[in-house]
Design goal:
Collagenase (Catalytic Domain), Immunoglobulin-like, four-stranded antiparallel β-sheet, 13 strands, globular, binds calcium ion, binds zinc ion
Length: 397
């Protein structure tokens, strides 16, 4: 929020942020049911790993694990949706947003969507701080890839206590994106408790989409609001105890009628531990789409053509109609099909680094894919039918 206050006070970007918010509010007034939108959009990502030592130079696999979390959390495919209490279950949202690592860099060359920069550190005693020093080569970081084509995520060692921060819509295009500390990014490798499930990045991407903290950044039930009707009022940020019975405010938005819901400590835009979080709301979805539909930088991103590595997009839409077996296999894979799709089915096989390896076209139905000529390893198969797709992972031994 400190970074956001700076954004608001900047003579140029502050005015633009206000204009973007006015346009988003107008759009929301005209599209009050935007939370029910069923389409799925894809946002191309570049992850900039900025490191002072080998430990901070996190692996590609750790980056992939974070992209997978984003895809689960923003499609409500996370395994812990079962922990969403009944009172909130009907307003929990599939945000309809997927993230993929870019396959083309700004020069048109192939990329795995990850850059690596060795540095002597940022401007806060060697740590990076919330004033964007990691976002420029001149201050020890790396410049963004064009922010109208790539969603930029920087991973570095932030000042102790700071897990991440985001730029809200309307800010400087030269610094647009989110920054996450290296031990709160992804779910493997360098992650440290309690930030073990990648939810810091989910939270910061929420800010980047225009969402505020659900308690309204105040210390009471009156002044601060997040401008979202279906997120209950809260007197303060949640604590690390995942207290699901806490009900700190009774003055709720008219949306709730006579119901006084408990605090929504499960919301990604609260300050709960990763293991407590499991939902966005339909109101937050509508709010995010109001920015995606009106902010020129966000609109440009949705029309970006920098390619899309499906790694990390797990279990999206139509893959539930398909079963690959045996898995692991020796390369001869049987496809069992349970759906009623029409038209052709395209199977595209990608290596763990996102390189396209092989493609098959078949009609809907059981079939076989011969991958016996591939090296042993992990592969993803993207299944595409008309405008829908899904991804499954296979292992060849
Ligand atoms: Ca609210
Ligand atoms: Ca409050
Ligand atoms: Ca309440
Ligand atoms: Zn926050």
């Amino acid at each position: 929020m400190q970074a956001y206050q700076q954004q608001l006070q900047h003579p140029v970007h502050g005015r633009n942020t206000a204009a973007v918010q006015a346009a988003a509010n107008q759009w929301l007034a005209n599209n009050p049911n935007a939370g029910n939108n069923r389409s799925v959009i894809t946002i191309p990502v570049v992850v900039h790993v900025v490191y002072r030592n080998a430990t901070q130079n996190i692996t590609d696999q750790q980056v992939y694990s974070q992209i997978a979390v984003l895809n689960q959390d923003f499609r409500r495919l996370n395994a812990d949706t079962v922990n969403t209490p009944a009172v909130f279950d009907t307003i929990a949202a599939d945000m309809g947003i997927e993230f993929c690592l870019a396959t083309t860099d700004p020069n048109g060359n192939p990329t795995n969507g990850i850059t690596r920069t060795s540095t002597t550190g940022g401007q806060l005693f060697g740590f990076f701080g919330p004033f964007d020093d990691v976002k420029a080569s001149s201050t020890g970081g790396i410049d963004p890839w064009p922010t109208d084509k790539y969603f930029n995520i920087w991973v570095c060692e932030l000042f102790p206590g700071l897990l991440g921060y985001a730029q809200f819509p309307g800010g400087d295009p030269m610094t647009d994106g989110v920054v996450i500390t290296y031990n709160a990014f992804g779910t493997i490798g360098t992650v440290q408790a309690p930030a073990l499930l990648g939810r810091t990045t989910t939270h910061e991407v929420g800010h980047w989409l225009g969402l505020y903290h659900i308690w309204g950044d105040d210390q009471d039930c009156t002044t601060g609001i997040d401008s979202i009707p279906d997120t209950p009022n809260a007197a303060a940020a949640s604590q690390s105890d995942c207290n699901v019975t806490l009900n700190s405010c009774s003055n709720e938005d008219p949306y709730w009628g006579t119901v006084d819901p408990p605090d929504m400590v499960q919301n990604y835009m609260d300050y709960s531990n990763d293991s407590c979080m499991n939902m966005f709301t339909l109101g937050q979805k509508a709010r995010a789409y109001s920015f995606l539909a009106t902010d020129t930088l966000r609109i440009a991103l949705l029309n970006s053509n920098v390619g899309c590595n499906p790694l990390g997009i797990v279990n999206t839409t139509i893959d539930k109609y398909f079963s690959f077996y045996p898995n692991p296999s020796d390369g001869m894979i049987n496809v069992s099909y349970f759906g009623n799709l029409s038209g052709t089915i395209q199977y595209d096989v990608y290596s763990i680094t996102g390189q396209w390896v092989k493609g098959f076209t078949a009609g809907p139905g059981n079939t076989q894919l011969n991958l016996e000529d591939l090296q042993p390893g992990v592969y993803t198969i993207r299944i595409t039918n008309n405008n829908e797709s899904g991804v499954q992972r296979i292992v060849i031994q």
